[in-house]
Amino acid sequence: MKKLVFLCVLLAAVGMLSAELAWPEPVTVVNYENVRYSGHSLQTSDGCHLLVWWQNDNAVPGYKLGFYDQQYQPLWDTPLAIPTPIGSYGLVETSDQAFVILCARSGLRLLKISRTGEFLWGPQGTLVSSLWMDTIASLAADHNGGVYVSWSGDGYEGERCAIQHLDASGAPTMSPNYVIIEDSNSWYSDLMILPDDSVLVCWSVRYMVRVQRMNYSGQFMWPQPLSVASTNNIPIGKFCALADSSFALCVDHDSSVDVQRYDFSGAALWPQPVTAISANWINGLKLRAVPGPDNSIFVTAETNNTEYLQKIDAAGVAQYGAGIDLTTGIGYLDGISQAIPDAAGGCVVVACVYDNPRDVIAIQVSAAGDMVVYEITNTSNDKRIPTAHGYGNFIGIEWYEHETWRRGIKVQVLDQQFQPQLAANGMELVYGGSGKVKDVMTSARSDGSAVIWDQAPLSSSNWDLYLQIHTTDGQPLFADGGFKVNRPESFRNGQSLVCCNDNLTMVVWGEQLGSVVSKRYQIFDAAGNILLPEGGLQIGTGGQNVGWVNVSTSLGYWYIIWSSSHTTIWGQKISGIIPLWGDGIQITQPHPTITGYMRNIKLEWPWLTWSLGGIPMLACINSNGAVVSGFPQWGMNMPMQYGSGLLYRHTFTVYEDKLHVLMGYYEEIGPDWVDYSFAHTMINRQGDYVFPIEELLLGGNYNVYIWDEFLCIGDYGDHYIVHMYLQEQFMCTLTISIPVLYNDGWDVLGANLLSNGDLLMIVNGYMNGSPALWHMFITPQWQMALPDNYMVFAGGNFPPSVSLLGDRAWVALERSAAAVLLQGVTSANTANPDPGSPGPGNALPGKL
After folding, report:
1. Which helix (H) or strand (E) holds 397?
2. pLDDT category, 686, cuts 50, 70, 90?
3. Which has the closest alpha carbon to 497: 452, 444, 546?
4. Residue 98 β-bridge partners
5. Residue by residue, what is the 3-state secondary structure of 111-153?
6. How confident is the model at residue 127 (pLDDT cuts 50, 70, 90)?
7. DSSP helix/strand/coil, 840
8. Phi/psi at 842 (5° precision)
9. Cα–Cα distance between 228 and 238 in angstroms, integer?
10. d(CA 610, CA 618)
């Protein structure tokens, strides 16, 4: 037939379809909340509690803010989502009974939130600095609804402490943007508000802590800063506000913590600093000081393995010697709260015990330094990061608790006798599943979709394989969490695959039981019942080194294909659940000259393809699994070089009775330039080249698919360009405009011709810098038609797994290593394009 070449350039209008998503929201196959808590807790002036935590909320990860009464009952219907990827750097209650949160999103931001949960400065808050990485910042509320905020530098002017004040409306009062406190490298600021709305700010320089008083305009109120020397290279200073118009400043040294008391002019009130605690390796970031009712000061400090407490009276005399070792008689602790002073001159410190039974305890320390320990919990779950606040005669406690498959925040309220007022061992405030997932794969059934994934506890490196099957209406066949596939006591080792045949589902996986590694398979019926013995059957003969595995279906049969010792390919044909090829048959022979790893083995009947040492290999097999004549028994290899270019990628596509091979080559032109080129050919079932390898003008974003009788090579740059072939003949090129997509990251994950003549395409791309998945249609008139809800997924671990069958596509996505989501796509109706538009029916006379 005479070769006809047509160039058809079509700038298509975009049709809109009705929604084609299977469900309004994706189905959550599995979801672990994986609650994380870092101790960001605030008690309000009336004893309520504000907490910040991270949570994977129904596969939407992010930080949350919850508000609770004195008994930890929620005061908001649902926690607020906080727009930050990093979390909170500080919480304060403002004088107008709102809250300000310092967080990070494209810089440091302040969010002001009312007690009813409204964002008073907008949901994005007020930007105070472009710096946010590794920031240590401080907040202090003034007496007029505003706040002071200080942090270390802006990232462009070195590490220098800066300060800003925002009034009640969120407007900054220090111009132009903030005030740099010290014109040299400085770190670790702390703030303390004074009665006249000025603020004390302390910061660190080398071997020195400095203090200055500032007003809301950013002016220094002392002629010179107060400077306190330290033996620590970068010391940390912490304020403690006292009731008699004075304050204490705690400074850490190499082996001690010193405390001095000052008036608001910066004059020292004690003859000399008091050494509160003597210990090596004190963590200055965890240094805390709180005032007692008699103007005393309680100081807590932590080292690598010990926690200390000191009380200093108003005259500057240490009451607990060199400091009380809170681990005495208890053992290692996994965090302590600040001290909570009592009316008798003592205090209470809440701690989590590190050694079993890992209890939460309350340590009561008398004015004389005597310790009494009260057990708050009696479970062996991992507990850490306690926070505690006193209000009246009660103490509210929060802590972070880990179980194997659950974790979250628990709370307790203690009365004056240290008796719990809530549930035994604590009430679950924010608690949920704990685990991690990976390696998601889906396969379409005639009535729904099967999804497999690996999962494990967060603390484990051993993974298990799970399966869930959903019907087209979104109903799961297995209970929540799915069906565990691998054998008890085993863990995953190797590939995992799922492949459906009508409504039967086969799962293939690798596992390790003891020291034995094997590849196995199991078959499930339409209702989810296993059809093979528990644990499935082994792939390959005993002692065979099974490598890469592939499973596919053709004409109702299963085909399992695998490599043996990276030298030969073996296969098994299964009818229902009956193996037809014994323990498997050898399909190929070892290659006489090419060696290396066998990968990417795939059988798309009757074409067997793989790579050997990175070289594309192919063969055609018959119904008995034998390589047909015309092909070497070890397979036919494609060239690794085209011109001066070297092969770096290839794509096999079965087209009628032939195999299309598209290859990408690269050539290093210079140290900063690589040239890419593409070439293709077709191989028939006799092992002959249908046409010689010829160059294709493509970009890197190509995909190959079959439309009716045509082989189509789509390429996306500024437009979507389709090169069409009928048999071996080039027919035409079509250009289609796709206005919503961007070139970066474009990848067609699946394409399927629907019964109404549309081509369904599942496309990976980017939107607003985040990965996203669209579905769209190309009509028979070669118009791009976008559904109303063209977005399938935004965000998550891309690319997702896609499986197409008939008029449906199924997409499974892993998000945040904590959730698996499933969504379906189908065609409801098509756009109504201009019937006179060019298309295959009137643009390609070679088909007539």
Report:
1. strand 394-402
2. very high
3. 452
4. 114
5. EEEECCCCECCCCCCEEEECCCCCCCCEEEECCCCCEEEEEEC
6. very high
7. helix
8. -125, 0
9. 12
10. 6
Work out the angle at residue 520's Cα, subtended by the Cα atoms of residues 518 and 523, and round it to the nearest 5 degrees: 170
Q: Return the structure tokens found at 593.
A: 């000259």
Q: What is the dihedral of CA 352, 358, 360, 363, to 10 degrees?
A: -70
| Distance separating alpha carbons of residues 821 and 531, to the nearest angstrom | 27
Query: Residues, the chain, total?
Result: 848
Runs of H (alpha helix) within 523-645:
none
Residue type, 357: P
* Residue 196 pLDDT > 80: yes
Predicted confidence (pLDDT) at residue 834 exceeds the cutoff of 70: no
Q: What average pLDDT does the segment 370-394 reach?
A: 97
Q: pLDDT band at residue 672, thresholds of 50, 70 and 90? A: confident
| 307-312 sheet: strands from edge to edge | 288-291, 297-302, 307-312, 324-325
- DSSP 3-state of 93: strand
Per-residue model confidence (pLDDT) at position 785: 84
Instruction: State the DSSP string of 232-279.
Output: SSS--EEEEEETTTEEEEEEE-SSEEEEEEEETTS-B-SSS-EEEEE-
Structure tokens at 416: 């004056």
Spatial distance between the Cα atoms of 800 and 810, rounded to a whole number of angstroms? 10
Respond yes or no on whether the N-terminal peptide bond of residue 223 is cis (omega within 30° of 0).
Answer: no
pTM, two decimals, is: 0.86
Closest C-alpha among 760, 781, 694, 697 to residue 729: 694
Give every strand in the sheet of 199-205, ordered side by side.
187-193, 199-205, 208-214, 226-229
d(CA 787, CA 830): 9
> With 60 as the cut, is the pLDDT of residue 638 above it?
yes
d(CA 213, CA 195): 12
pLDDT band, very low/low/confident/very high, at 14 (cuts 50, 70, 90)? very low
By three-state DSSP, how is residue 205 classified? strand
Q: Which helix (H) or strand (E) is 842 found in, with range?
A: helix 840-843
| Encoded tokens for 656 | 């009628």
Tell me which DSSP letter residue 841 carries: H
Structure tokens at 305: 């393995």
CA dihedral 759, 765, 770, 772 (to 10 degrees): 20
Spell out a b/e string for 458-480, using b for 16 or more CB atoms within 10 Å of the CB, else e.
eeeeebbbbbbbbebebebbeee
Q: How far apart are CA 590 and CA 593, in angstroms?
A: 9
